[in-house]
Amino acid sequence: MTWLKSRRLQYLLAITALFFSLMVVLRAVFYFGFSPLSGDSDIATDTILTAWGIGLRFDLRLALLLMLPLAALAYLPWLNLLRSSIARFIGHAYLLFALLLLVLTYILDFGHYAYLADRLNVTALRFLEDTAISTQMVWESYPVIWITLGWLLTTALTFWAALWIEKTLLGRPQTRIAKSQATFGFFVCFTLFFFAILGRVSDINILNPIPLRWSEAFATGNKAVGSLGLNPVLYFYDTTLIPASPYDKEAVQKYYPVMADYLDIPPAQRQNLNFDRVVDVQSHKLDYDRPPNVVFVMLESLGASRVGAYGTPFDPTPNLDKIASEGWFFKHFYVPVTGTAKTIWATFTGIPDVAPTESASRNPLTSHQRMVLNEFKGYRKFYFVGGNAGWANIDGLIKQSIDGIELYEEGDWKAPNVDVWGISDLELFRESNQILNDLPDDQPFFAFIQTAGNHRPFTIPEENGDFEVRDMPEEELAKHGFRNPAQYNAVRLLDYNVGEYMKMAQASDYFDNTIFVFFGDHNNRITTIPHMPPAMEKLGLESNHVPHMIYAPAYLKHRVIEQSVGLTDVMPTIAGMLGLTYRNTTLGRDIQSPAPEGDRVNFVVMQEGPRPVYGALTKDYFVRMNHDGSNATLHDLHSDDPETDRAEQHPEVFEKLYELARGQYETARYLFYDNVDNKDDKAQQ
Questions:
Q1: pLDDT of residue 312
Q2: φ, ψ for residue 629, nearest 5 deg
Q3: Could you tell me which of 375, 341, 379, 382 has the C-alpha nearest to residue 360?
């Protein structure tokens, strides 16, 4: 293995080890000098060691990233560290700058944590708005001179060590390495580099490798433990992706009276932008002897235009159609924003995910939300997903926000992965059903089952019961929304798996005492949908219009809900059925309670981004506008010409929907932060 004798390789490994060692020392300083965990006997040692392990993996990732510019300088054909004094000067300058910045970031992080009990993040930039006051406060509060000397001394010692490494390793005689050895060494190093950057070596779906993310540091829901597992440089970078002005407080205040009416907040509580209210036991609560179980089934990429109950031909969804004909069937149900992560966010938080770039679940500053689900006292709570829950940092959201959540994901299942999304939906249903059926009869539970099969690559697993692919002419399918037979059969497979799950559930001990909640997370690409009202396609609402059914044969008779209903309303509606007295800090409402605005109004985003297009709709009308409320138009959802602006014909409808759309958008942005659960540590309450 002569490739290990490479001067450049040994130099880069040593520099990486130097960076890593420095960060380990600084992590120890944080733990013993600033973290409350070092003296907390209530936190299990295993929990602390796990946080250390996550943090060290982040440190290794950063050490490798810091090494990359030197790797480029080492392997340039002519201008490299072995042959060129210019290259060495550039390398020295880079090393000095990187070390100064790295150590300074840690110092600022220590101060930030000591001051606010938060690791350094983008919100610290607000202190630059008044540098005179901030500088004076720092000067009067901290030993700035000693800290500066410590910064420079630490940097100087590490820089001296880097120069010694360079002189010792790059200055020795060259060892000839055969091309075959060099090639082999490259593949070994690349593989090790890949896994080190990924931050994990087990439970990896090679088709969809999910890297270690900040959310995993907060797996316990304990803020201090999560803080120990972070790397301040990487964490600060993650938070810089958050918009500088995440909400407009003046706009929130302007529309607060509208939203207070919409949410039926008692007049005495309408102050200081309060959205917190307590909902008492409702007269429409179910009559039961023991608390019913609740199972949410999220139907991946399933729009209403794919489901037979909404008029789709070719019989793609006989099982869902049966559920719709026997349970509560919602004809006008909308998710506020399309995208799986955004749907999951809205389901649990009750707040539309209007984040301007990526999903709100990716924002480390807002991932600890208050939720109606936490009012389900005495319930065991489960989240089942066939793939990796670290995708979009969903695991961070649910672990930090849902008390006692039990997460089952990739690596926890007996079945093998079938594609990028993990195990098949059928196996997900089988194993989830077994877990639920093994619970004691007197233990109520809430379970969320996230399907994934109705998504590219539209995998039909080899082991999938007696499901058979149906051949249909592509041109016929294209006339009613399906782009190809694979898309059509993926919908059929999803429906088949739902049917199989219902058979399993009916044979279980929990079926008769369970409320099943089915909903699509968004629609996928369509061709044309003549079987749907013209407004769905011409106004772009088909992406948000998804199927929704609530099925509980022992409790609910068949009912068709004609009113417009939104995803944020689902959790409060179930809480109302269960007869809970619960705290609601979200934008969701119980659909069985009268809507103050008359015809129920829901919020939808039509085009995402920093300047979104959004609107509000009832079962009959839809107002659409730009991000700032400009170019607002009113549309008749039952018209053959839905694109025509009807604002002049119906000014009162236009005004009501306009105000509610603006209020929902501005309030949702504000609630991302206002709805954060500020409990420092659940374990320390």
A1: 94
A2: 90, 0
A3: 341
Within a 10 A sphere around the Cβ of 242, how many other Cβ atoms? 21
Side-chain-side CA neighbours of 562 within 13 Å: the count stands at 2
* Rounded (5°) CA angle 359-364-367: 70
Complete domains list, the chain, with CATH: 2-240 (no CATH), 253-595 (3.40.720.10)
DSSP state of 636: E
On the CB side of 341, how many CA atoms lie within 13 Å of its CA?
A: 20
Q: How far is C-alpha 614 from the chain's CA centre?
A: 21
pLDDT tens for each residue of 132-167: 767 877 887 789 999 999 999 999 999 999 999 999
Q: pLDDT confidence of 681, banded at 50, 70, 90?
A: very low
pLDDT tens-digit profile of 380-402?
A: 999 999 999 988 889 989 999 99
Rounded to a whole number of angstroms, the CA Rg of the chain reads 28
Cα–Cα distance for residue pair 535/49, rounded to 1 Å: 56
Per residue in 652-677, pLDDT (tens digit) is: 999 999 999 999 999 999 999 999 98
Rounded CA separation 218/167 (Å): 42
Query: 316-354 burial string, b = 16+ CB within 10 Å, else e?
Result: bbebbbbbbeebbbbbbbbbbbbbbbbbbbbbbbbbbbb
Q: How confident is the model at residue 527 (pLDDT cuts 50, 70, 90)?
A: confident
Nearby residues of 124 by Cβ (< 8 Å), 6 or more positions away: 108, 112
Are 485 and 471 a contacting pair, CB within 8 Å?
A: yes
Residue 650, classed as helix, strand or coil, is: coil
* C-beta atoms surrounding 92 within 10 Å: 15
- Structural tokens at position 82: 């072995």
Q: What mean pLDDT comes out for the span 350-357?
A: 91
Q: Which amino acid is at 268?
A: A
The rounded distance, in Å, linking the Cα atoms of 299 and 439 is 25
- Say if residues 85 and 30 touch (Cβ distance below 8 Å): no
Cβ–Cβ contacts within 10 Å for residue 42, how many? Answer: 8
Q: Please, what's the b/e burial string for 134-150 (b: 16 or more CB within 10 A of its CB; e: otherwise)?
A: eeeeeeeeeeeeebeee
Residue 5 has phi, psi (to 5 degrees) of -90, 0
Which tens digits make up the pLDDT trace of 219-255? 776 778 888 999 999 999 988 876 666 899 999 999 9
Q: Do 359 and 341 touch, CB atoms closer than 8 A?
A: yes
| Predicted TM-score (pTM) of this structure | 0.82
State the Cα–Cα distance between residues 546 and 662, nearest whole angstrom.
23
pLDDT at 510: 98
State how far the Cα of 541 lies from the Cα of 529, in Å rounded to an integer.
12
The pLDDT value given to residue 117:
78
Beta-carbon neighbour count of residue 286 at 10 Å? 15
CA-based nearest residue to 426, from 499, 505, 517: 499
Q: Which two tokens stand for residue 185?
A: 């060494």
Q: 187-201, 537-551, 576-590, 613-627: lowest mean pLDDT where? A: 187-201
Please, what is the end-to-end C-alpha distance for the chain in angstroms? 56
In the structure encoding, which two tokens stand for residue 367, read together?
Answer: 């991932």
Cα distance between residue 81 and residue 170, in whole Å: 8
